[in-house]
Amino acid sequence: MKVRIETSNAPKAIGPYSQAVNANGFLFISGQIALDPETGQMTETDVVAQTHREMANLKAILESAGLTFADVVKTTIFLTDLGDFQRVNDAYAAYFESDPPARSTVQVAALPKGAKVEIEAVAALP
User: Fold this and answer.
1) pLDDT-based confidence at 1, cuts 50/70/90?
2) Where does residue 67 fall: left (phi above 0), alpha (psi -120 to 50 degrees), or beta otherwise?
3) Which residue of 13, 28, 84, 111 has the fewest C-beta atoms within 10 A of its own C-beta?
4) Are 10 and 61 spatial neighbours (Cβ–Cβ below 8 Å)?
5) Which CATH topology does 2-124 take?
6) Which residue, 117, 45, 49, 51, is CA-closest to 80?
7) Given this model, what pLDDT does residue 43 score?
């Protein structure tokens, strides 16, 4: 059984997908780009500011399911330029004070709406 998770505190999906899906003891959160939840528009151009906006979006989705970053077991970061790796890594690290999740980081040719970074997550449900 799967349950769709939606919150107005994170951007609405810009395509035929859910913000997150609760299935088999896990919350699968779709990739987040730096969209403002109120306007649905990109508000940040700097990769660090985009990372912080995306982490805020992820936090809102986690909270809507009664979870926190401590419940995240895996993330994937997509970058349009691996040269931004260290700056994104430093911003991302602030959200995982201990026991960080498993993670993959890959470079991609492009991201929706010209984003420089996109982050998706999987969290374990209690």
Assistant:
1) confident
2) beta
3) 13
4) yes
5) 60s Ribosomal Protein L30; Chain: A; (3.30.1330)
6) 117
7) 84
